[in-house]
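hey so i finally got around to running the thing on that chain from the lab meeting. sorry it took forever, my laptop kept dying and i had to restart like 3 times. anyway pasting the input first so we r on the same page abt which one it is
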Amino acid sequence: GAWIDADSRSQGYNQNDLIENPVFIIESILRDILGLGSSVINYTSIDALGNATSGRRDNWLLARSLTQQQNSLAVIDEICNEAAIVSIHDYANQERLVALDHYNPTDQLANADIIDENGVPQVRVRQTHVKYIRNEFFLNYKLNYATGNYDKQLYITASATNMSSNSRADKTYNSYTGLCTGSQTMYNKTERWTFDSNWIRDDATAELFIKQMADWLAIRKWEIDAMLWYSAKTLKLEAFDQVTWNLDLLPISMRDVQ
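ok and heres what got predicted. didnt touch it at all, straight out
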């Protein structure tokens, strides 16, 4: 629609382009189906996420035939699940899209930002439960509408993968099979993740998605709960923002967290 070029937007797409990028499919539903306008859509976050050259979802393509009437919000949830993004209401009560990626945060929190009671910083640190660990991954995709089955499957195990690239750059484990091996050794169990994708049809997007799930699920994450002082720095933080914790109590390996 014309909205892709409105409000001085520039993300590499134009009116009448085929919409395959998941973030702009969601925006189309918000605007063209649910009737929302620019005043309640954080299109800056959408453009940053789906930018054709620099967005975190720039190479992701989704497509699906809706053969019966479906709830628009349920469709948005499906797309979010298959693109590893979340849709939230931000501080301005606008619809905002956020990628479930890890990146190098620009915002930092330090000792002075933590409320201190009787000399004790009000902070709690723990790891996510081991029950959420998955270290074998099977993705079924390219739904065949005639048979109801999926024509393709992508997999990663400790011993093999059929992905075009098994490499993990700048990580503790430099391959995805190595990540599965390390996880199975570390937690002494093998747990399979299986997902049937109704939206993914091409090999490249399937590989991006399964790698995203492996990165997210194979290793336990650190969780930090803290009571923060009100300040210009802390009040601007929202759900799914990422920060660096420069807190003396935390080891260096734990300081980049969501």
